[in-house]
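PROTEIN DESIGN WORKSHEET
SECTION A - STRUCTURE
LENGTH: 229
TOKENS:
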């Protein structure tokens, strides 16, 4: 019996210790979330040129309380967060989306680590180097190289918007019915739904950055990868 009692007391002691550790972890997680929420509230407030007094008055809370929320010294209830968001001119979903984005760590990729990938234009002689490896596909940035040995200049169409920034060489670029002379330092942005792509290379080699930016409503299950550069 004595051995069983000692064993039971030992088990209870271990459970209590585990409980204290879990409460500590929960406390750290809550503090981290409060800080991210406070950082977003403060950033949005400053971006919109609002003072603590402006937002506090509109939300019906004191400046001191709002300051405590921004500095993560206090946690705001969902009701108070909704009132603060209303004062800032945003909704709760926008706030939490911004909070979630702050969890993404900066991504740094050395040029030697850029991954060469296969896209539709690869078979025509285009070279694509992926400039980001983030799994969330809200955008896809590529470093694209083309030379006059390319077999053809196909037209591309895809979801979202595309941004092109010219680095080297000159080319004529088609965006639907417009043909543009694109030179180093030039930039253009257009809807990916319209037919687009290089029309003619004016130098032996061109290089540019192409970034495809997908709309928020397209971030769900898009099925297979869209056809693009």
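SECTION B - SEQUENCE
RESIDUE ASSIGNMENT:
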């Amino acid at each position: 019996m004595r051995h069983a009692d000692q064993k039971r007391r030992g088990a209870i002691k271990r459970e209590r210790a585990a409980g204290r550790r879990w409460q500590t972890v929960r406390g750290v997680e809550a503090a981290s979330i409060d800080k991210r929420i406070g950082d977003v509230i403060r950033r949005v407030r400053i971006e919109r040129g609002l003072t603590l007094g402006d937002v506090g008055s509109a939300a019906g809370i004191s400046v001191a309380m709002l300051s405590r929320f921004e500095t993560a010294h206090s946690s705001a209830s969902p009701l108070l967060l909704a009132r603060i968001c209303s004062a800032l001119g945003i909704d709760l979903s926008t706030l939490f989306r911004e909070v979630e984005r702050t969890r993404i760590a900066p991504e740094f990729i050395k040029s030697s680590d850029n991954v060469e990938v296969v896209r539709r234009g690869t078979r025509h002689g285009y070279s694509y180097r992926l400039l980001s490896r983030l799994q969330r596909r809200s955008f896809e940035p590529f470093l694209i190289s083309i030379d006059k040995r390319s077999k053809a200049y196909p037209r591309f169409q895809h979801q979202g918007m595309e941004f092109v920034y010219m680095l080297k060489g000159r080319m004529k670029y088609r965006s639907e019915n417009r043909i543009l002379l694109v030179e180093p330092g030039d930039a253009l942005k257009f809807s990916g739904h319209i037919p687009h792509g290089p029309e003619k290379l004016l130098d032996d080699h061109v290089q540019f950055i192409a970034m495809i930016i997908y709309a928020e409503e397209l971030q769900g299950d898009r099925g297979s990868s869209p056809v693009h550069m």
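SECTION C - NOTES
The helical segments are 2-47, 52-59, 63-70, 78-88, 92-101.
The chain has two domains: 2-101, 111-218.
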